[in-house]
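Bench notes, afternoon.
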Amino acid sequence: MLDTRLARFLVVVRCGSFSRAENTLHLSKQALAKQINSLEEELGFRLLDRGRTGVSLTPAGQVLYESARRIQEELNSAIEKSQIVASQKRCIRLGRFKLHVLLDEVNRRFSLEHPEIELKQIISPTADPFIQVLEQLNDVAETPWTPDIHEQGLEYIKLVDLPYQCLMSKKHPLTLEQRLSPEKLSNTPVTIYRQQWKEEHLAWLSSVLPGLRILETLFYHVKEIYSVCEQGGIFITPAYYAYFLDPLARVPLDVDFTWEYGICYRKNPSGEVQKYLETAQKIYENRQFQ
């Protein structure tokens, strides 16, 4: 439970750049830079040297990083031990966004099969359950895959590949299409969330759609999607989310890549967490989203 800015400072250092930390934290690099700047201003000295290829620690930053990392590890260990002492019933703490993608079905099945294990769902006020797992405030969390998961000391299991869907008003002329290639969208305003795309896929889509509007926001705003579609635009999002937006038409995006989604958890999980992961894998073993 370190200061949020200090916790994110540790992640930025581990990732080596604000851009990579952006993918890990699902928070824009501008917001991350603002928090680190605020921390440096409060401390009265620079922690990071910023360069074109990434960041590096200043001598003072190195001292703070080593001490903060050690404190975080000791604090996590203390929290875990105290939770074992205080627990009256075995439980699993589930980190989640306000909009759950995969785990509701897992929770129902798991509760039926293991009534002796309590599931505590914790909705993160910062919409950042990934970090709460890292800080041992949660045991598991659903998350898209990022290349930094293992570097952060976490494990990850893939559950599904989510294809992309084009959301639009039912009056939009492109609703008649069976599938939509990005080239067919070149004359239509298109909006996406940056956090729902891998960097290489985002770069390619931006080259095909020069007018692409990219939202940096961390939260999944349904009103924003409706607003885009009501004004004649198209919002591209992974398939699962599309099912929550029934008044809108959906047409699959014709690309050969998907958005990988699964569960992150700490290394050496407890027996309870291991049972939960096994239940999730059984449910999604052959599941496909269209």
